[in-house]
Amino acid sequence: MINETLFMNGYAVYVLSAFSFTLLSFLSLYLVTKMQFVREQNKFIAKFGSLTNEQARTAKSQRINKEILANATNN
Amino acid sequence: MFKLFEPNKIYKITSKAPKYVLFLFIVVLSIGLVEALVLSPKDYKQSDAVRIMYVHVPAAWITLGIFSSITLLSISGFVFKNKNFFLMSKSLAPSGFVFNIIALVTGSIWGKPTWGTWWAWDARITSMLILALFYAMYLIVWGIYDKEEKVYKISTFITILGIINVPIIKYSVDWWNTLHQPASINILSKSSIHSSMLYPLFMMTAAFALFSLLIFLMKYNTELIKIKNKGLDRL
After folding, report:
1. Residue in B closest to A27 by C-alpha
2. Residue B47 phi/psi, 5° resolution?
């Protein structure tokens, strides 16, 4: 039974390589997308930090900017 | 109605949703993998090689669905003059492209034990390869042009050309003599696949759909922050 499951009647090399390729593609796409997100978030924080008080007040008047900052500090 | 979906209003939801979608994806994928690799029966003709179907078919379904959505969103962007639609279609494209590559590669791996070849210039395979080229062109256009209006026009043109290929992919097995078998699953009539194979297939499709939703949300949030970064530069 275990042998049958592991070797899949000689097709294991095809089946497992198809599944591995799929899962590796998922992992790569997830990591690349996550990296892009973190990079943009860090850029936003750095830019926000360099604003004057007046500019920061104006920026914070937009709800989405407040949300981005809140999420960045929570992560 | 579109005002309800304005980025400023939905960011609170789209920024929190990925962690829940990721959790759900891992649960559904785990169940799907056990079903596909262990519990589902082998085929009387293809033996265990049939298990490749559980990654190949969902990937093909999702990539076709995503390309159709991209086209619909791009056209809607023009009709309703709403940039958010373009942002959504741009965020869908990377996962659509990856699913297309998965469908091609796993199909090629499946072809070796069943047809005795890694690749054949068969109507279904060739039309899927053409779809991958349309995805690639769409992504390249977003990468190389700076002017928004130009990107919107060219990318929509690419999707309109590419959507012609979608029914060709679907009906290629009926219109031409191909190595692929005709569709085994029909919405309107009884499927020719046994329920013991249908259940894992739907579980894996659900897992793949959740993954594309996860990538879409992450990419959409990234695009929104990019826009806000430009906004901070203008202050």
Report:
1. B211
2. 60, -135
